[in-house]
Amino acid sequence: MDESNSTPVLTSAGPPAPLNAAAAGSRYAFVAIPLALLGWAIALVPPLSITIALRLRELDLDRSAANLGIVLGVGALFSFITNPLAGRLSDRTTSRFGMRKPWIFGGAVIGYLGIAVIAYAPNVALVVIGWSIAQIGLNFCLAALIAMLPDQVSPDSRGRVASFISLAQNVGGVGAAFLVQLFPIGALQGLVPSLVGVVLMLAVVAPIKDRVRTERPTERFDLKTLFGSFVFNPRRYPDLGWAWLTRFFLNTTQFTATSYLTYFLIAEFDVSDADAPTMVFKAVLVNAIGLLIVTPILGWLSDKLGRRKPFVILSSLIATAGLIVIALSSTIPMLLLGELILGAGVGAFFAVELALIADVLPNEETAGKDLGVANLAQSLPQSLIPIAAPSVIGAFGYPGLFLGGALFGILGALGVTRVRKVR
């Protein structure tokens, strides 16, 4: 039997006693999970990539770059804490509405309240508070949505669904950037796009037949269990450890390219604050074109061949090349070419990486917790890059920041070769 397809999943025919699971492979879930993550991305991207940066320039122009590092770093710390904790809590939830959906709906409300705080914040401190609240809420949504993948999708279809999830999240970035640039600088620039995303996410999640836990978990939720939400044993589960590192390296490459894009355009290409959202939209759109070309094909091909690692290696090298082109850009067309190449590389990676993670999960009973820990590899770069970026930019400029991100792409290609269970 192909090892990449050996991870057990719950089916309606034989779930463990405490759980009542939806049928794995539900056709609606195939579509709904990616669409929900499309909405999640539309809600998250406006503040993450554009509106916080512009708001900070309004509040304190001279310290805006340093303040952006503080805001993104503190918010990412809350993301780091929330994601695995939310996964663990959803694994233990006994609500009649399901294990995952209560956290998605509750998190969406909290997340949007945080975005509203950012929109009207009169000082940097309240921007920090608002973004922290938004990260808490939206990461409750993310952890529960990602946990639905092994709940709802059988192993031989995960590559395709994971590729559509990647596609949806990145197209969501394009949609968010498009909506943002429709509005002048101000509160509506952040509030309306994020509201569209939240409404879409909740609308498509509502009809999903969620897993229902019919008995309380036997494990006590004490301090040991709480701190256990943030770790796994890489010696006992080395494949998950190497898959985690690979995800961390490639997300570092990706986030390096997006977190300071607005300021890069303003500083290096003399783009005005008013024009920055439109230029970011163009860059994100070109990036998504590269992703759209690659992602669906490679997700399907990965399932067809039963292989994940070759696609991750290829994607790492392509993404590295794209970030190098961005770093060396002297014109807008050259920058857009780099975004196109980077999009193809990121698309190739995200076409298979979530399926790779799902294939090496050690236990379906703790899928939410383990996927939450895996999601730390996505949120941790968002904490570390804002801390390091101001110093790197001060010493080497924005090209130095992007070349540093490219190095992590190479490390990602090396890391995935150590995964043994998956071909």
Automatic annotation (TrEMBL):
InterPro entries per the record?
A: MFS_dom, MFS_trans_sf, Sugar_transporter_CS
* Localization of this protein: Cell membrane
Q: Which GO terms describe its cellular component?
A: plasma membrane
SUPFAM superfamilies (UniProt xref) = MFS general substrate transporter
**Record bears the keyword Hydrolase:** no
UniProt keyword annotations, A-Z: Membrane, Transmembrane, Transmembrane helix
Q: What is its main location?
A: membrane
Q: What is this protein called?
A: Putative MFS permease
Q: Which GO terms describe its molecular function?
A: transmembrane transporter activity
For whether the record's keyword set contains Transmembrane, the answer is: yes
Q: Which residues form the Major facilitator superfamily (MFS) profile domain?
A: 27-423
Bilayer topology reads: Multi-pass membrane protein
**Which parts pass through the membrane?**
28-53, 65-82, 103-122, 128-149, 161-180, 186-206, 279-299, 311-334, 340-361, 399-417
